[in-house]
């Protein structure tokens, strides 16, 4: 994915502006209400758990998880920082960085995270091949691992 003259990333079909953030918050709250949880109940999060939130957008999920689990460290990644909230508004146990999940994962991130949360990456799958994304998600995981994904809207919403 490249940059256009406005600094926006090409290849991403949605916009990154105020109304896009509203859309992301609405999607998040619909998912949270429908699912009834941030992390599936089979996933145990302890003090010092390292969580990666891939394609975190405006960080709604990340912020809620960080507040519910202040001993965990939650690291949000997105290809663009355009919708990241200001650091002032984030819980102290969070960190935000840019990361292109279509590119190889940097060595410093390989095997680092206990939990990887990812949602709605279907729009960035290239040539109908999710394998590069899946390989990169797996590369982030440590030996005791969980991946939580959200990929489509329930049919009754």
Could you characterize the architecture of this molecule?
Mean pLDDT is 82; it is low at 1-9. The protein has helices spanning 18-35, 60-68, 131-140, and strands at residues 50-54, 73-78, 94-98, 113-119, 141-150. The chain is an alpha/beta fold.
List the helices and strands and how they pair.
Blueprint lengths: L17 H18 L14 E5 L5 H9 L4 E6 L15 E5 L14 E7 L11 H10 E10 L7
Parallel strand pairs: 1-2, 1-4, 2-3, 4-5
**Distance linking N and C termini:** 32 Å
Mean pLDDT equals 82
Instruction: Note the run of SSEs as H and E.
Output: HEHEEEHE
The count of β-strands is: 5
Poorly predicted regions are 1-9
Assembly classification:
single chain
Beta-strand level of the residues, as a percent range?
15-25%
Q: Assign the structural class, choosing from mainly alpha, mainly beta, alpha/beta, alpha+beta, or little secondary structure.
A: alpha/beta
The value of Rg in angstroms is 15 Å
Strand order, sheet with most strands: 3-2-1-4-5
> Helical region count?
3
Shape category = globular
Helix content: 10-25%
* Main β sheet profile: 5 strands, parallel
Short description:
With 157 residues, the chain is an alpha/beta fold.
Name some characteristics of this structure.
alpha/beta, disordered N terminus, 3 helices, about 160 residues
């Amino acid at each position: 994915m490249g940059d256009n003259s406005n600094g926006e990333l090409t290849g991403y079909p949605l916009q990154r502006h105020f109304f896009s953030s509203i859309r992301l918050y609405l999607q998040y709250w619909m998912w949270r209400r429908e699912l009834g949880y941030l992390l599936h109940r089979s996933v145990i999060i302890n003090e010092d758990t390292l969580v990666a939130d891939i394609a975190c957008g405006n960080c709604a999920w990340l912020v809620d998880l960080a507040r519910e689990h202040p001993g965990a460290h939650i690291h949000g990644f997105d290809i663009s920082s355009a919708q990241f909230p200001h650091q002032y508004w984030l819980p102290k146990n969070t960190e935000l960085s840019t990361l292109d999940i279509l590119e190889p994962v940097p060595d410093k991130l390989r095997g680092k995270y206990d939990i990887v949360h990812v949602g709605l990456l279907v729009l960035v799958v290239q040539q109908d091949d999710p394998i590069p994304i899946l390989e990169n998600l797996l590369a982030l995981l440590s030996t005791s691992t969980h991946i939580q994904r959200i990929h489509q809207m329930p049919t009754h919403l």
